[in-house]
Design a protein that fits this description.
With 138 residues, the chain is mainly beta. The protein is built from three helices and nine strands; from the N terminus they run βββαβααβββββ. The longest helix is centred in the N-terminal third of the chain and has 8 residues.
Amino acid sequence: MTATKPLDVAGTVVRNLRVRFEGGRAVEIEGDNAEVLRGRVAKDEGGSRLGEVALVDREGRIDKTGTVFFNTLLDENAASHLALGNAYATHVGDEDRDKINKSAIHIDFMIGSDDVTVYGVRKDGSEMPVLRGGVWQL
């Protein structure tokens, strides 16, 4: 996976971020200043696992500014994003709550752009576009 926007990790900007996952864990984290993110995800057992996958379209006001604010609470509204580390139990049913990833960290980074297409897979195995060109296809 390749990040589409720079990421601020405790005051250090990580650019050109590339993360390779294997067996549900980030096993390679590369890019400019990526050692800061590697150090952060090594904090605990769940730090290198996914904690969030969020699909975001391009229609929000944050994306339209064309600005990276280096503030996750703003920037995550501009593009689809992933987070390494802790998952939020808010929207998880009681029967699955013990299955979510737990970590002391939660670091979001943007993976969305108009060049990214997301497909859903139906029960029969067929694919359907969910997000294309930054626009919902549902």
